[in-house]
From TrEMBL:
This is Response regulator with CheY-like receiver domain and winged-helix DNA-binding domain. It comes from Thermus thermophilus JL-18. Residues 120-219 form the OmpR/PhoB-type domain. It comes from the Bacteria. InterPro entries: CheY-like_superfamily, OmpR/PhoB-type_DNA-bd, Sig_transdc_resp-reg_receiver, WalR-like, WH-like_DNA-bd_sf. CDD domains: trans_reg_C.
Length: 225
């Protein structure tokens, strides 16, 4: 699971980043607002400092909410910045932490936000079990050997059962914005995933093709064979 950490203080990036990685998260880092806007499409949660160079934190928050209203957003504020904190919450931030802060407290808040957003620490669909923070997958109790991209692709779809993702959206979410790839890249990785899952494209247990649109993870309400 990917957390985007945005702060212009190298010490915060280093220390808080280390705590987040120790908790099992993949950490994306941005030291300014421009970089944050490049990276947030890949993230499952954003930790955002409000005092940023190039593009301010409040503007970054506004643009994130405009593009991805469902994305969990935690803001960092300096002590005494009550007005900015209120503005951040009004723009749709889900929580805030005042500096100086305990990295352990931030990690705990991140986990709480992800739980509230439905991004659980364990996903179980019939014989398939995914552990996002540990980046592990099991099928019928046995470890499922997945590449980084295969795991991210499967997790992206599994976190939103029944939701159709276009190839373009999957390229942006899994490979990142600006990836010089083509739709065929997604098709190749889906085919590899199906092989490892033992998934029949004509009668899938997990990954369904929506012709002319893209792919989706089979709805939780649909019975697994």
């Amino acid at each position: 699971m990917k957390v985007l950490l945005v702060d212009d203080d190298p010490a915060i990036l280093e220390v808080l980043g280390a705590f987040l990685r120790g908790a099992g998260f993949e950490v994306l880092e941005a030291e300014d607002g421009e970089k944050a806007l490049e990276l947030f499409p890949q993230a499952d949660l954003v930790i955002l400092d409000l005092m940023l160079p190039k593009v301010g934190g409040l503007e970054v928050a506004r643009l994130i909410r405009q593009e991805r209203p469902e994305l969990p957003l935690l803001i960092l504020t300096a002590k005494g910045e009550e007005e900015d904190r209120v503005l951040g919450l009004e723009l749709g931030a889900d929580d805030y932490v005042v500096k100086p802060f305990s990295p352990r407290e931030v990690v705990a808040r991140v986990k709480a936000l992800l739980r509230r957003a439905g991004l659980r620490e364990e996903l179980v669909y019939g014989p398939l079990r995914l552990l996002p923070t540990r980046r592990e997958a099991y099928l019928a109790g046995k470890p499922l050997p997945l590449s980084r991209l295969e795991f991210d692709l499967l997790l992206t779809l599994a976190q939103h059962p029944g939701v159709v993702f276009s190839r373009e959206r999957l390229l942006e979410k899994v490979w990142g914005p600006g990836f010089p790839g083509v739709d065929r890249v997604v098709d190749v990785h889906i085919a590899a995933l199906r092989k490892k899952l033992g998934d029949d494209p004509e009668n899938p247990r997990f990954l369904e093709t929506v012709r002319g649109v893209g792919y989706r993870f089979k709805d939780l309400d649909a019975p697994l064979p």
